[in-house]
């Protein structure tokens, strides 16, 4: 014999005209009778993903939630936040005492009815139990209902198999077969149970048809579940049956709820004490009641399953069950701490997988992966791309792709969180001081980088992990006009460019000279070699080579030894025309796994070799006594490339980049030997070109396959950074040089939405001669 397992219900609300009131003046009684056989009877994501819609709950939802604390207990998002993934398109079968189909909370929710006693369609609920269960699954406030269910967008088919508190297995079997064979409901909620094996053929048929079954463990307070929940552990059940127990408001097992250690791997718990939902009997229609029992917990899980299937219709019943299990909040029957309990990966003997967590079940499980046009699958975790100073990757912030979790559930992810502003780190200290010059033409400078160096003012990156000799620069010039230069740590500006002449305005911000070719700065920690010769007409010709090794590149390539990340070959001509000093620099920058300093990892990885050719013109001219005007302009062209990495990025067209600077400097402003400099500049910025990306744009709800599209993303950033820098330097009486810097950056990173940055810095340099 099968029975409904729920407590006696106290009717809490009645309809009086248009007025509705909910109160709780009566204590609820739990019907506990160990001799009775209780059956639990009664108990953003969209096509392309399940992203929750960020919408405020309606007033009706807020009112419902004030009575239905159990919705908060299971972490169920407001229906208005779920968009179309609120159960829409999913049918849930209920085998119970019938239902009031025109109840305010169920109006339009019941698609079909079946009376298993006579084959008719009259399912008048004489006990209220089926109406209560139905409201828990799919109750809605859309038609004036006071309370709502877990999946208000779902629809119901009701098979009436009870007229009293008990029924027979043949009648119940007919109801199950109608739900499964005739209405083909993918989810079946059974808030009923027996202490004897029965209806196995009906349940096996449901499993064979791919139905997910939620079945109550029963209300006898014992360590053995009731049937059909006990079928969950059978091999033929294929993980498609979920056994459900009841919790109180404190997330502890309700005293009446059964549990079964042998069913732990297929068990979850849900609120089952004082659960408010719709209620109806022939004498109390359009009502609401608090009821208790595993009958109330079971439809909660059925509603959760409907939400999951609404977002990912292609999921098999066993996968939906696993999503529910693996997203549940762990509960432990022993004295384990909350942290230890949460970290456990196995089911608890009493609580199984724990309290169902609806919100977590609609979020990724096991990490996200993205597919590429080659069919390769790449983990999205850790995917990043750094836009570098040229702002190349800023256009990716508006791109989305569909990523899938371990159950192949699609989620829309926006790449903006993976795009950062700069990949080329700068020194955590200002640029090296002017090198000490000896009478014989030798120039030498060195910079010691102590551990825990103050973080760089702009990048926020502390590059000094330990005490080290960070920068060294050495050059030599003889009386015949021949010169040689060598340096490490990105000190090429001491031998090349306008800065090497001593005529460029001060640069104290750690970003290198703004009057040398900015492409040198992309190889920020490079070792350089240079050779120069002076012709009879005073023209100076310099040639050189820069090389930077990168452990980052070796990681991207899965190599055990570092590879050259960036190298640069250059030739420059320095010529003076009266008081005007000019420098023209041409060169070629070659980068591995990087494009103009832009680097990527994981799903946004760059496994390519790119070449950039450039020309830079710089010069300085006196405009007044001890006052110099300086300028720099550069133009570069990066060749098109194909991306060899397994990545969403296919490659890019050829692109152009440019930068410019204007500076004014004056000596002996306040005292002999001091210097004031002002610079206005636009850092290196990409001005043209497109990047090709292949991303998943939708997911089939029939088989879960992803649909891909290739699109072009502009490499030109949305804004134009302009830097203003005021620097002052003065010699100190006791030796050394004290310098101060005030700088402002408008639209930093060439991002039109980025806030202005302002910084102030002071440094002291002591030179030994």
Break the fold down into its secondary structure elements and pairings.
Blueprint lengths: L1 E3 L5 E7 L2 E4 L22 E2 L2 E2 L8 H9 L1 H5 L17 E6 L13 E6 L13 H10 L16 E6 L5 E2 L1 H14 L4 E4 L1 E2 L6 H9 L3 E5 L24 E7 L19 E5 L3 E7 L2 E8 L2 H18 L5 H11 L10 H6 L14 H4 L7 E3 L5 E3 L4 E3 L13 E5 L5 E5 L4 E2 L15 E2 L4 E8 L18 E10 L5 E6 L30 H4 L4 E8 L5 E11 H6 L6 E15 L2 E13 L6 E3 L7 E16 L2 E12 L2 E2 L6 E4 L2 E13 L7 E12 L3 E10 L6 E9 L7 E10 L5 E10 L10 E9 L4
Parallel strand pairs: 6-8, 6-10, 7-8, 10-12, 12-13, 13-14, 19-22
Antiparallel strand pairs: 1-9, 2-3, 2-16, 4-5, 15-16, 17-18, 19-31, 20-21, 23-24, 24-25, 25-26, 26-27, 27-28, 28-29, 29-30, 30-32, 32-33, 33-36, 34-35, 35-38, 36-37, 37-40, 38-39, 40-41, 41-42
Mean of the pLDDT scores? Answer: 83
> For the terminal residues, how far apart are their CA atoms?
103 Å
Roughly how many Å is the radius of gyration?
36 Å
Structural class: mainly beta
Number of helices: 11
Kindly report the spatial arrangement of strands forming the biggest sheet: 23-24-25-26-27-28-29-30-32-33-36-37-40-41-42
Strand content: 35-45%
Largest sheet: 15 strands, antiparallel
- Spans with pLDDT under 50 lasting ≥5 residues? 8-53, 423-439, 451-468, 551-562
Name the overall outline: elongated
**Helicity range of the residues?**
10-25%
The tally of beta strands, per DSSP, is: 42
């Amino acid at each position: 014999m099968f029975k409904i397992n729920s407590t006696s219900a106290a009717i809490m609300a009645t309809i009086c005209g248009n007025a509705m009131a909910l109160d709780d003046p009566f204590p609820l009684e739990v019907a506990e009778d160990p001799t009775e056989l209780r059956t639990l009877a009664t108990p953003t994501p969209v096509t392309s993903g399940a992203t929750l819609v960020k919408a405020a709950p309606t007033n009706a939802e807020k009112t419902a939630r004030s009575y239905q604390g159990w919705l908060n207990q299971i972490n169920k998002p407001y229906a208005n936040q779920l968009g179309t993934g609120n159960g829409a398109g999913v049918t849930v079968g209920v085998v119970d005492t019938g239902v009031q189909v025109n109840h305010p909370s169920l109006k339009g929710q019941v698609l079909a009815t079946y009376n298993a006693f006579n084959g008719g369609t009259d399912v008048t609920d004489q006990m209220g139990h089926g109406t209560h269960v139905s409201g828990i699954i799919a109750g809605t406030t859309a038609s004036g209902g006071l309370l709502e269910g877990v999946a208000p967008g779902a629809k119901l088919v009701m098979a009436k198999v009870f007229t009293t508190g008990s029924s027979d297995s043949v009648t119940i079997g007919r109801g199950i077969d109608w739900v499964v064979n005739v209405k083909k409901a993918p989810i079946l909620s059974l808030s009923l149970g027996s202490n004897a094996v029965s209806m196995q053929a009906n349940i096996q048929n449901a499993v064979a048809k791919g139905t997910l079954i939620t079945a109550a463990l029963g209300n006898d307070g014992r360590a053995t579940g009731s049937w059909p929940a006990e079928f969950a552990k059978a091999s033929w059940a294929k993980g498609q049956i979920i056994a459900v127990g009841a919790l109180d408001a404190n997330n502890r097992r309700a005293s009446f709820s059964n549990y079964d250690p042998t069913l732990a791997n297929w068990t979850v718990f849900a609120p089952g004490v004082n659960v408010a939902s719709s209620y109806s009997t022939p004498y109390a229609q359009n009502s609401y009641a608090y009821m208790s029992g595993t009958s109330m917990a079971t439809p909660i899980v059925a509603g959760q399953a409907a939400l999951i299937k609404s977002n990912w219709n292609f999921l098999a019943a066993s996968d939906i069950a696993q999503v529910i299990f693996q997203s549940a909040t762990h509960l432990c029957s022993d004295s384990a701490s909350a942290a230890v309990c949460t970290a456990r990966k196995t089911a608890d003997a009493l609580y199984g997988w724990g309290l169902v967590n609806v919100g977590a079940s609609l979020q990724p499980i096991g990490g996200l992966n993205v597919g590429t046009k080659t069919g390769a699958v790449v983990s999205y975790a850790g995917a990043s791309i750094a836009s570098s100073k040229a702002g190349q990757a800023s256009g990716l912030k508006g791109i989305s792709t569909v990523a899938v979790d371990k159950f192949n559930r699609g989620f829309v992810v926006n790449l903006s969180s993976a795009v950062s502003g700069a990949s080329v780190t700068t020194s955590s200290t200002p640029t090296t001081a002017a090198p000490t010059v000896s009478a014989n033409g030798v120039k030498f400078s060195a910079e010691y980088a102590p551990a825990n160096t103050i973080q760089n003012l702009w990048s926020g990156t502390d590059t000094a992990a330990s005490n080290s000799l960070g920068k060294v620069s050495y050059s030599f010039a003889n009386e015949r006009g021949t010169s040689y230069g060598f340096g490490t740590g990105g000190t090429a500006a001491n031998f090349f460019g306008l800065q090497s002449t001593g005529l460029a305005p001060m640069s104290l911000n750690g970003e290198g000279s703004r009057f040398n070719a900015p492409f040198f700065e992309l190889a920020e920690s490079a070792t350089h070699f240079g050779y120069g010769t002076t012709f009879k007409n005073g023209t100076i010709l310099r040639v050189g080579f820069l090389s930077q090794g990168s452990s980052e590149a070796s990681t991207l390539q899965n190599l055990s030894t570092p590879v050259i990340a960036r190298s640069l070959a250059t030739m420059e001509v320095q010529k003076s025309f009266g008081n005007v000093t000019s420098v023209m620099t041409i060169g070629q920058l070659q980068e591995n796994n990087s494009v103009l300093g832009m680097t990527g990892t994981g799903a946004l990885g760059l496994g390519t070799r790119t070449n950039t050719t450039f020309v830079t013109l710089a010069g300085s001219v006196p405009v007044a006594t001890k006052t110099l005007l300086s300028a720099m302009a550069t133009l570069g062209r990066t060749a098109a490339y194909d991306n060899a990495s397994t990545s969403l990025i296919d490659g890019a067209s050829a692109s152009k980049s440019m930068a410019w600077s204007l500076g004014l400097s004056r000596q002996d402003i306040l005292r002999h030997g001091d210097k004031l400099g002002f610079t206005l500049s636009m850092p290196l910025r990409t001005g043209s070109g497109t990047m090709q990306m292949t991303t998943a744009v939708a997911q089939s709800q029939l088989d879960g396959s992803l649909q891909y599209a290739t699109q072009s993303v502009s490499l030109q950033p949305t804004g134009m950074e302009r830097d203003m820098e005021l620097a002052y330097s003065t010699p100190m009486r006791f030796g050394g040089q004290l310098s101060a810097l005030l700088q402002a950056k408008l639209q930093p990173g060439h991002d039109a939405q980025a806030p202005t940055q302002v910084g102030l810095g002071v440094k002291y340099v002591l030179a030994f001669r």
